[in-house]
Task: inverse folding
């Protein structure tokens, strides 16, 4: 099997900020990904990063961690920074489209995880951002995980985020995010078998 280089880009949620186990959703997802897939993964998170900022900086950072002989993949984790900064949905869409189009031109397959609900960000605005991102992905046949609607009224998510101060989840919340990713096309995207429970 050819080596796969997998880069995660996004904000502090991609880094697992506030997780007592220091795994976040990315570490939990990779822990459930078969070892024989030969994946070298890196997390390139920037706290508070907007989609436009991510679009400006991701290319060179990911390129340095890419393989010339194997498969390169990119996971984009969206947060609520665009909502908090008052960035228009059109600008957010354009920034995400630029990331995905550039990755496609580099033969880099993408997987996008949408923004989850957080009390600090207006829920309607976050829902619209998630919908805008999903539309961008659908047009490009890129897998998209809606993290907003499944968690919007989820009691465990809400309680976990509140207990962590309202700006990020804790262990339980990151576990819920990981579950969504793993059950929304992760294994199919990687082309690996889903492990038995």
Result:
């Amino acid at each position: 099997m050819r080596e796969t280089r997998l880069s995660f880009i996004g904000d502090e949620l991609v880094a697992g900020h506030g997780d007592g186990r220091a795994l976040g959703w990315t570490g939990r997802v990779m822990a459930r990904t078969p070892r024989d897939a030969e994946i070298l993964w890196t997390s390139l998170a920037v706290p508070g990063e907007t989609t436009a900022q991510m679009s400006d900086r991701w290319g060179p950072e990911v390129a340095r961690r890419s393989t010339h002989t194997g498969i390169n993949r990119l996971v984009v984790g969206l947060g609520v920074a665009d909502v908090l900064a008052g960035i228009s949905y059109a600008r957010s869409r354009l920034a995400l489209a630029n990331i995905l189009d550039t990755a496609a031109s580099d033969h880099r397959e993408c997987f996008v995880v949408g923004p989850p609900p957080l009390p600090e960000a207006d829920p309607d605005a976050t829902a619209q951002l998630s919908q805008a991102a999903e539309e961008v992905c659908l047009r490009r046949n890129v897998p998209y995980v809606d993290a907003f609607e499944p968690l919007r009224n989820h009691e465990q998510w809400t309680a976990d985020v509140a207990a962590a101060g309202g700006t990020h989840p804790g262990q339980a919340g990151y576990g819920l995010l990981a579950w969504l990713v793993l059950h929304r096309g992760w294994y199919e995207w990687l082309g690996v078998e889903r492990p038995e429970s």
User: Anything to note?
Assistant: The beta strands are 4-10, 39-45, 71-77, 109-113, 144-145. The first helix runs from residue 12 to 15.
